Amino acid sequence: MKREEMITRVESSDTPWDVLIVGGGATGLGVAVESASRGYGTLLLEMSDFAKGTSSRSTKLAHGGVRYLRQGNVSLVLEALKERGRLLRNAPHLVRDLPFVVPVYDWWDGPFYGIGLRLYDLLAGREGFGASRNLSRDETLRRLPTIEPEGLRGGVVYYDGQFDDARLAINLAQTAVDLGATIVNYARVTDVTHSSDVVSGVIAVDLESEAEYEISARVVINATGVFTDSIRSMDDPEAQPMVQASQGIHIVVDSSFMPGDSAIMVPETDDGRVLFAIPWHDRIVIGTTDTPVDKPTLEPRPFREELEFVLHHAARYLTKDPSPSDVLSTFAGLRPLVGSSDEGETSEISRDHTVHISRSGLVTITGGKWTTYRKMAEDTIDQASIVAQLEERPCVTREMRIHGWVEDPDEEKEYGVYGADAPLVAQICREVKRGEEYLHPSLPYRRGEIIHAVRNEMARTVDDVLARRLRALLLDARASIEVTPLVAAMIAGELGLGDDWIDEQTESFRDLARGYLVPSSI
Prior knowledge:
Layout: H1 3-12, E1 19-22, H2 26-37, E2 42-45, E3 61-62, H3 66-70, H4 74-90, E4 95-104, H5 109-124, E5 133-135, H6 137-143, E6 154-163, H7 165-178, E7 182-184, E8 187-195, E9 198-206, E10 212-216, E11 220-222, H8 228-235, E12 243-254, E13 263-266, E14 275-280, E15 283-287, E16 291-293, H9 304-317, E17 329-338, E18 353-357, E19 363-367, H10 373-387, H11 422-431, H12 448-456, H13 462-469, H14 472-475, H15 477-495, H16 499-514
Parallel strand pairs: 1-2, 1-11, 2-7, 4-13, 11-19
Antiparallel strand pairs: 3-6, 4-6, 5-6, 8-9, 9-10, 12-15, 12-16, 12-17, 13-14, 14-15, 18-19
């Protein structure tokens, strides 16, 4: 998967693309896989890097959504549980089952949550990851040795899925390319074009060369998440907003705060939110929040009150209270929720996805969540193929293996997250000078992985490498800042760039990474 080859395909194409997708997050990449798997000529354009926004900033869960069950949205839970099972089968190198424990402090919570989670099991059916059951106080403490013991009566354990979101996004991009799709990062769509009042393509700019392209397509799909309305306004300046952005933040701490292999799920905090504490890459991810945001950005920052909320509730449920100085990294993501709330609350706005077709034929897919990306893509291409009058072809992605699939996954194995690509990564690490050396004592990555990211995964910047190809920025922001000059120099060596580029990248990434640290004033 090489960017230069993708650009060449765009420049040499002399016929309209069957399907042109704007947006390279989970939704857009899923649509590209769905389209290409049906044999349609497919082009995807992403203004930044793949999964730069929401899709790399999730809670890292492939889940049915216990909270949605409480809201009575059984259809969404059923759909998500079915897709969760497919994800485990189709990308076993990135998705695994994880036990979650709901700690019980009030006597009525045990029966209440026990019954609810048994319903969750029932809805999962054959796709279930394990049977839920009530735990005694001693069993709960064995699973969660650092849970607050005062007043603890027991717990309820259930099973859901965990995954690496940005790695899955890269594998989806590779899958799309394997199927014949053309995908380009750092290609900004600046306008939607029309012919006889019908959408006919887009104007796009290659942000690296500054070349502008007028690209024709039989159908254009808007899969830009929280930026949905900006593309819709290019099609129709009078279009009414349909997306409300909601911010969720997480903090990342050392695994000593919650040793073991079980996660914590608190179904309802003081303000009705759900709180998770989840083992991930030998760290603990704690979140999340649900805060309305007026103007979406590619680099959202946690609000002070969000950080205080998560730290306060982490301290309430853990015997070892994390302080701001204990936080290795913090990250914020924006959810694209369909609709609005008069009260300004986003926690009750629908998490269902919506496919919308404008009067001029622009197809918009928005809402939803990571777990249901494949079903969203299937629904989108079903509609888009009608708009484009393409030959009807069946969906084949339900059981289709995603790039990297291996029969016997082992995430603890060296380079395990690369799945079937692990031998290639290991070979590059051996062949590159000092490639097998660890990037930093606090990070689990080797130097050669940087070269692989640039050569084979279309990484173009330090941010691409440290935030998404590797997850270094989320695992330890300070360590990532320390290795920035080395990473910039290695990328520059691969791309043939000079000292000025290295200096600019070093400065810009360090500035970005400082935003992942909790201010000492909190």
